[in-house]
Write a structure and sequence with these properties.
With about 230 residues, the protein is an alpha+beta fold. Helices cover about 30% and strands about 30% of the residues. The strands form 4 sheets. Strands 2, 5, 6, 7, 8 and 9 form a 6-stranded antiparallel sheet that branches. Strands 11-12-13 form a 3-stranded mixed sheet, with helices on one face. β12, α6 and β13 form a beta-alpha-beta unit.
């Protein structure tokens, strides 16, 4: 089966860069997200950064020298072990969801899931390890700035319903609306239109003077909705 799937992926990719074989599980997961953005998990947005490992940090601190006395630049000799690694951080726990209730903070670095290290792992793989059946626990080991040692946080997974469109009038800026769109699902256009009309009425007799349209962390989705 694996050979047949690999062969199919190969000849489909040879047609053009846009053709590929999608597994049934991946297709179901993708279409579920474009229907209602719901999932079973902890309710937190994660992000990744490339950062130097401890070996490289130590070299930058102590093993540097000026190229010339008058030159402000520093020269650092790098070795094979001096690498940049992926690090996974909590961008923001979703309000009222299990991650926030369990005490997960924005800025926490996730270093292990159920005692298994995720350092250097791709974000999608980290997310897949954290997600799971609702009602089941997951233990995250996090490194928090200002604390000397990592801490374990146990979170019980739940069904997370993501609000696709959120809006408000910006505080201290009357007439300026703010709308966040988290993905292009089947209802995105209608929901966005309704939200802008609601804000336009809330802004007063003159309506909206401007709109901040926030697409950060938007997961994509249906082309026609976009």
């Amino acid at each position: 089966d694996r050979i047949l799937i690999s062969a199919a992926q190969g000849f489909l990719y040879a047609l053009d860069p846009h053709s590929s074989l999608v597994s049934e599980r991946a297709w179901d997961d993708s279409t579920q997200r474009t229907r209602d953005s719901s999932f079973d998990g902890i309710g937190a947005l994660l992000t990744q950064r490339w950062e130097p490992n401890s070996s490289l940090k130590n070299r930058l601190r102590g093993k540097t020298r000026n190229l010339a006395k008058e030159d402000p630049f520093l020269l650092v000799e790098l070795s094979e072990e001096d690498k940049f690694t992926r690090k996974t951080y909590v961008e923001s726990p979703i309000q009222g969801q299990p991650a926030e209730k369990a005490g997960l903070w924005a800025g926490d670095e996730i270093i292990a899931v159920d005692a298994s290290s995720v350092e250097g792992m791709e974000l999608t793989k980290v997310v897949n390890r954290i997600r799971g059946k609702r009602g089941t626990p997951v233990r995250l080991t996090v490194r928090r700035e200002g604390e000397p040692a990592p801490r374990d946080i146990v979170i019980t997974r739940a069904h997370i319903r993501v609000t696709n469109v959120e809006g408000r009038i910006l505080e201290h800026h009357p007439g300026i609306g703010y709308v966040k769109l988290t993905g292009f699902i089947e209802s995105s256009f209608d929901e966005l239109k309704d939200e802008i009309e609601r804000l336009d009425g809330e802004a007063g007799p003159d309506g909206l003077r401007g709109l901040v349209f926030d697409l950060r962390m938007n997961s994509g989705g249906l082309l026609q909705q976009a």
